[in-house]
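Need GGDEF domain-containing protein's 3D structure for a figure. Predict it.
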Amino acid sequence: MKTGRTDNKSTPVTAADFQRLNVERLKLLYSMGHVALLANQATALVAVAIFWRPIEHSLLLFWFFALGIINVAREFLLRSFHKHNGRPLPGISWQAAYIAGAILSGILWGLFALFLDFGWPLPYQVAMFLLLTGLTAGAIPSNAVVFPVYLGFTAPVITPLLILLLTRGDITNQAMAGMVIIYLILIIVTGRNYARSISRSLALRMENRELLRSITSANDELSFQASHDPLTGLNNRREFEHRLEQALDNAQREHRQHVCIYMDLDQFKIVNDTCGHAAGDELLRELAVILEPKLRSSDILARLGGDEFGILLDGCSLNKGMEIAHTFQQTVEGFQFFWEGKRFQVNASIGVVCIDHESAGADTILSDADMACYAAKDLGRGRRSFCVCKEKGTKSYFPGNSCPQLSATA
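Structure prediction for GGDEF domain-containing protein:
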């Protein structure tokens, strides 16, 4: 019996992926830097308060202000990073600069450990151990995002304390040194695991972001395909009818006027019959390119099917609509199409219908514009015509500028 086995093959990680991941880690590191520096200086203030008695005041204050100067310099580094949005700058490595600041801070905390005197009362010695170990443990969330930063801070803090314990020679301190070594190993392993966990989380977030971008792009593409004609890139009939319904609703609610134009090409069949459908398709594409610039920003041009186009003029009077229709007709008449050494010229018959608060449904408007267009064809190709309702249920079509509505609104 055959058994199926699925091999999980991971996608190869490229150098660009590593670079993006490093950038994300740096951004996260620097975003937490302000809080980390504040916590660092606040801990130093607590240390001064605790050890004010056993340590000489001048040394303690000198150490405190030295650490403060380093933290101020690191704060300027953070501000510079955010000012430049993490972009690489000549001669500056943001990661190396942050590591250097962490090392300097760690060295000063290590020097603080040298203040330890084993002749102190036990509570002070315990306080020193707790302070330094707590400091390094608390630095994991902010520093271990980039593991070398955490290592650069922790090692200088713990090493002087470890040396002090080892050089004392007595069994108790050597046992303490052993515990510090175990702690150091555990804290470094914890920091390393934390860094890996952060890297995995950031990588997953990057993948999710890319996936979301792909889904959004696919949705945009599907939405575009659903509302646009694949041949010309113009809006399709479905989108045109949808926009027509919106215009009608607007006209009825706000008593605004719009204009619907139906345009049908003349002599288009000659191109198809003479040169084939490929030539006809190319003619439609070229015509769409020259017609779109004639629109206002609020208007819509659509291919309704075959060689028929629809134009919806938003917030437009009938007079203005007739002018725009004439412009479209002149544009088509001035267009010359060349295919395999042959020259073709087409005309357009146009129907114009006014949309106002008395207009019927969108289907009726489009049908009226279509009928007006064919009435124009009956008058002779390359004509304009528009539809006007004289009485309820009765429609008349007028050629050119002879419509009574035009003279009434002029």
